[in-house]
Structures are given as C-alpha cells and as structure tokens.
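User: Could you go from structure to sequence for me? I need the amino acid at each position, not a summary. Structure tokens:
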C-alpha cells in the first residue's frame, strides 16, 4: 500500500481541490433523501475544466435509489463529458464517507485508476475557518477498487477463439 501512495499522480491544484470540494458540498442541497435522511453530494472535475455536481436521489421502491456519485457520472456522461481528473464526495456527517460498491464500479468505467477521490467531512468549511486540518481523506479509485474489472478487459482475446 505504501508504494502505491508514493506513485500517486496528483494532478489537482490547491484551488481546483477547494473548488471541487465546495461543489460537492453545494451538490448536497439537491439531495432527495426522504427515506434515509442521509444527504450525499458529489462533484466531478472533468479534464476540460467542467465541474459536474450530483446528489443522491432516493425512491419509494428503495432499489431505484441512485447515489450522488452515479448521478454526477451519468449527468456528465450523457452530456458527452467522459474524462475526469478528480471526484469529491461529502455528506452531513463529520467524518469522510466513501462511495458504495456499485458507485466504485461505475466510476471505474470513466476514470483512471490513479484519479484522486476526495472524501470530505461535513464540517470542512468550519475546520478551515477554525484553522484546523480540513479532515479530507484523499484516496484513489485504485485504492477503493483494487484488482478491478474494466472496459479494457472486454478487449482481451478469448481462449479458443
Ligand atoms: Zn453509491
């Protein structure tokens, strides 16, 4: 694990990092979560500089619920934006929360394994104002989804063909 961290390709400037985190916090306002009462916001930064926000959208048929991360990815992808440099995710709890398994796989479809993923505590802004560490947990897609299956695997030769 230590080696992987040393070879991370951090591409985010301090300004973009803060911008993306604040967009994820804003995105939370769009949450429709009457059942869980657990608001989540996500924001993606595309390679061409767009910030795409998403919130969790629940459904009375619980299985129809869509997480914030997937909302953001699907919004972007359906507008033709399919290349990203970072993702930030936040909720209302004062500790970083992490994408669920389904979201990790959907993120994998469009993002590099080395892409930074910022897990943001709800009190990010308050921490900064108080002069504390921002409490953001920085990880990568590869750390969240090791040994993953992705689009390139469908290109592999099949045995016996
Ligand atoms: Zn999810």
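Assistant: Here is the amino acid at each position, in order:
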């Amino acid at each position: 694990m230590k080696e992987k961290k040393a070879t991370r390709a951090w591409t985010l400037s301090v300004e973009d990092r803060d911008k993306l985190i604040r967009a994820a916090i804003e995105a939370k306002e769009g949450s429709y979560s009457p059942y869980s009462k657990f608001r989540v916001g996500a924001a993606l930064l595309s390679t061409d500089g767009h910030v795409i926000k998403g919130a969790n959208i629940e459904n009375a048929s619980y299985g129809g619920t869509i997480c914030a991360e997937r909302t953001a990815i699907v919004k972007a992808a359906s507008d033709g934006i399919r290349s990203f440099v970072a993702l930030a995710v936040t909720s209302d709890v004062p500790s970083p929360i992490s994408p669920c398994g389904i979201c990790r796989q959907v993120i994998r479809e469009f993002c590099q394994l080395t892409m930074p993923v910022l897990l943001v505590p709800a009190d990010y802004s308050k921490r900064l104002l108080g002069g504390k560490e921002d409490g953001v947990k920085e990880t990568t897609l590869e750390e969240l989804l090791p040994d993953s299956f992705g689009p390139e695997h469908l290109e592999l030769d099949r045995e016996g063909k």
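One structural detail worth keeping in mind: The mean pLDDT is 93.
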